[in-house]
Amino acid sequence: MNTIPIRHKWEPYLWLLPSLLLMSIFVVFPIGIVFKLSVSEISKSGVVRGFIGLKNFRDAFRDPAFGTVMLNTAVWVVSVVGLSTLLGFITAMALNAKFFGRKVARSIVVFPWATSLVIQASVWNYIIKGEYGSLNNILLNLGVIKSAVNWRATYQIEFAWECGVGIFVTIPFVAFTVLAGLQSIDDAYYEAATVDGAGFWKKLRHVTIPLVKPSLTVCTVLNIIYVFNSFPIIYTITKGAPANKTDTMVTLLYMRAFYDNQKGPATAMSVIGFAILCVCAGAYMMTTMRKEEA
Amino acid sequence: MRPSTPETVRRANLRALAVALLAAALALAMLCLPLYRFSATVFAKKSGNTFVGDEKYQAVRAEVEAEAARRAEVTDRMPEIVENVTERTNSKGEKTSMVAFEVREVMRRTGWQFIASGLGCGKVLLAALICFVAALALLGAGLPGAMATDWPTLPASKRAPRRIAAALGLAALLLIPVFMMGCNLAFSRQIKLASDGFAKPGLEALLEKLDRFLYDGAAGEDTLNLMGGVAYGPTWALRALIALLAAFTLGALMLSEGHPAEALRRALLYAFIIALCALILYPYYVMVITGFRSNAETTDMYFQHLLPTKWVWSNLRDIINRGVPRFLLNSLMLSVGATVIALLCGIPAAYAMARMRFAGKKAFLGFVIMSQMFSPVVLLVGISRLMNAIHLNDSVWGLMFINAAFNQAFAIWLLRGTFVSISSEMEQAACIDGCNTVSAMLRVLLPMAAPGIVTTLIFVFINAWNEYTISTVLISTAANKPITVGITQFSSFNMIEWQYLFAAALVATIPVVILFMCIEKHLAAGLTAGGVKG
Fold first, then answer.
1. Which of A177, B122, B238, B471 has its CA 20 to 30 A from that of A251?
2. B23-81, pLDDT tens digit by residue?
């Protein structure tokens, strides 16, 4: 084991102290506040009036937008995580092959990851603008369309665009974690597979996928958490309009907390969100812990 | 793979060469065929309540034919007469017809005519032709004497020309859509713009070229009007040209890579990479060209240039006057502060996790992982109350601590991965020599772990720089806003000043993108190292 001797029994805890303190104050404490508020009555001016049981949760479930928003959240997480994982995997495979200009291509793929989501979302917001948006301009110039198309005709289409932007900005993260996994695969496996007469698809199924699975699992679970909690894309492009039809859970709770002054139901929604994510984090911990033991 | 003898290689190469040369010959032949077909209505006449063939019909028909003959005298070409018959039943139950005649002139233009026209699209076609001829020449240089050499053993002097030939073939192929775009600009978009009264500079010259190109210079002043009614479309020859250029590229690839399957795989790989990079760069391109356009141009429905017609550098001056430097300074302070705090807390923790054995190690790891799933957005209500209580709301300092705390998990994760991958032997030796643990870490481990630490540092910096959600809730004073929140002042509900929004976004994006490119190589490894190396 790669360890060093310790002088006192409490020494390791001293090393952990700064980090523990920082996270306790700024992460754990707010968690506590949110949980407490979720079962408290909060006046319009924000004063906490004491325990009211599960009324906030009942209000949250009765929120007229709750059903739509839960459905949206599911569509949002599944489509963004699913498609970005698939496309990110293909991208990683492509970036792992040898070709002229690979360094440049890798640097370019990093761009969306390094850019603030609010900026990316603003640009896409401009691109799909109805009359003068850049997409219409380009397609008109290319002659693909003869007159300007309204790219955001219905809220379903707008939501689809938001999912698209979500996929777009998530691909680099997947691509680079998978790429790291691909790079650590020994070429000997492929050579052996070639000798055995395996083609591209067989190598993919029996060598590549099993060996990058650990990286893929880690990044998928992290992605589920990030995507579930993703806020700027939807907030910038539609702000949930019309009538919360394009909201996901986090944008709805933001609106309820800071626009509609319903802090109680908003914190209840936060707690519901935790509950959902706990399942994911549980799966995450189980996979990482299992790897730890292996 | 099949074993390759000189004979099979020679035969395969001959096959590939045949494909490439046949495609090349046909592609050049396509240039002599019409690439675009134009058709314009020059005269229209309707005849109502009639039957095909009766007197009324004949009368109108004669009139139309006379007009067509008159046109033929002017232009030396017999125009086409189009008849549209609409049947209908009148009140007495009789079937009558409405016949609408149109005199349409159909014009076809070959590739060479395009090139000779001097129009922008012609120049693009010429560029494609030059690429193509260069590719052919290189293919000629890369073949002699090595027709039977197996592909893996090809000398660079033979392989490079073949590869470049394939790349030039691809370039020629990609120039064809650009050519089509140029055609659209010349034949429709600029014309529409001009007839709507938005004359752009260079219109006169364009009309003169169009007049010569389509009407042999006979249209003169009428060119704009005539062009307004022109319908046009690519012919089959243009589509064939695209396919032939693709076939040529594939043939050249087969000559440099070997088996058709391998060549096709390479072609698909390049196609995917080019499409991906184009898609990723597209928003940045939009950012650049919009950030330097004038306000009127950003909302111009007929904007048709690849670059701003005039680079409005004063946009930069305007955003400087509207507080952007202050926002950038805030972002810088906040990111540097968050990075320093995150590393000061994270390095000792990661060190303990990597090097020491103690009870509760797993619990701490679990705690770190758990903290990842609580994003700031869901905790916003709690965070804003906490910050109110400790009087750090609306201040850059508060943001520093929050960002540091929410990046702890990743920092510890990345650092621990780095530390674990470095052997502890040197530190153990230092400890035996009487050095304490702290100086062992500072003097021995940290210098060796420098790449991993720099990666973590930049990663935390970028996350803090790009953070938007917490800042937008906590900060209300304009002077304390970081750049991500600051730029939203350019987009209010009823008016978005796109040019300022994107100029500021560009300034905020370029530094972090460059930073990120520096750590890209280490980051990917670091992200999984934490998980894989345990």
1. A177
2. 999 998 888 888 888 887 667 777 766 776 677 778 888 888 887 887 777 666 777 78
pLDDT category at A294 given cuts 50, 70, 90 is: very low
d(CA A58, CA B433): 65
Residue from A8, A106, A123 to probe the interface with B (highest B Cβ count within 10 Å): A123
Structural domain includes residue A31: no
- Give SS3 for B467: coil
Which one of B270, B286, B306, B381 makes the best mutation probe of the A interface by having the most chain A beta carbons within 10 Å? B381
Identify which of A30, A110, A168 has the shortest CB distance to residue B379: A30
Decide if B88 contacts B97 (C-beta within 8 A): yes
- How does pLDDT run across B90-123, given as a tens digit for each residue? 777 777 777 888 777 778 888 888 888 888 888 9
Over range B126-135, report the average pLDDT.
Answer: 92
Give, rounded to a whole angstrom, the gap between the first and last alpha carbons of chain A. Answer: 15
A108 interface with B at CB cutoff 8 Å: yes
Interchain contact B491–A (C-beta under 8 A): yes
Decide if B400 is inside a domain. yes
Number of domains chain B contains: 3
Residue B435 near chain A (CB below 8 Å): no
Structure tokens at A134: 């850049």
pLDDT, mean over chain B: 83
Instruction: List pLDDT tens digits, range B350-376.
Output: 988 888 888 888 888 888 877 877 778
Query: Are A37 and B381 a contacting pair at CB < 8 A?
Result: yes
Residue A163 lies in a domain: yes
Give the pLDDT confidence of B187-210 residue by residue, as tens digits: 877 787 777 776 667 788 888 888
The question of ipTM being above 0.85 is answered as yes
Which of B175, B184, B377 would best serve as a mutation to test chain A binding (most A beta carbons within 10 A)?
A: B377
Task: Specify if B513 maps to a domain.
Answer: yes
Residue bearing tokens 């989501």: A117
Cβ contact, residue pair B377, A106, below 8 Å: no
Domain limit, last residue, from B111, B144, B175: B111
User: pLDDT (tens digit, 9 = 90+) per residue, B307-324?
Assistant: 777 788 888 888 888 888
Residues B203 and B328 in one domain: no
Q: How far is B471 from chain A (nearest CA, A)?
A: 12
B86, B166: one domain = no
Contacting residues of B for A222, CB less than 8 Å apart: 372
In a domain, A44, yes or no: no
Instruction: List, in sequence order, the alpha helices (H) in chain A.
Output: 11-23, 29-38, 55-62, 66-96, 102-114, 117-127, 134-142, 155-183, 187-195, 200-203, 209-228, 232-237, 249-258, 263-293
Are residues B100 and B123 part of one domain?
no
Same domain (yes/no): B419, B373: yes
Whole-number Å distance between alpha carbons of B151 and B12: 11
B97 assigned to some structural domain: yes
The verdict on a CB contact (< 8 Å) between A140 and B189 is: yes
Q: What is the mean pLDDT of chain A?
A: 85
C-beta of residue B227 within 8 angstroms of C-beta of residue B209: no
Residue A81 lies in a domain: yes
Tell me if residue B53 falls in helix, strand or coil.
coil
* B370 plus B385 within the same structural domain: yes
pLDDT surpasses 50 at B533 = no
The CATH number of the domain where A165 resides is what? 1.10.3720.10
Asked if B349 and B462 sit in the same domain, the reply is yes
pLDDT of residue B127: 93
Residue B144 lies in a domain: yes
Inter-chain CB proximity B300 and A148 less than 8 Å:
no
| Number of domains comprising chain A | 1
pLDDT reading at B216 higher than 80 = no
Q: Which of B298, B315, B343 is the last residue of a domain?
A: B298
Q: Name, in order, each residue with C-beta under 8 angstroms of A184's C-beta and a sequence gap of 6 or more.
A: B528, B532
Print the domain residue range for A143: 71-246
Given this model, what pLDDT does residue A287 score?
67
Residues B87 and B12 in one domain: no
Choice between B168 and B47, residue whose per-residue pLDDT is larger: B168
**Domain of B257, in residue numbers:** 6-19+112-298
B67 touches chain A (CB under 8 A): no
Give the distance from residue B258's alpha carbon to the nearest chain A alpha carbon, in angstroms: 15
A71-A76-A78 Cα angle (round to 5): 95
The chain B residue lying nearest A184, using CA atoms, is: B525
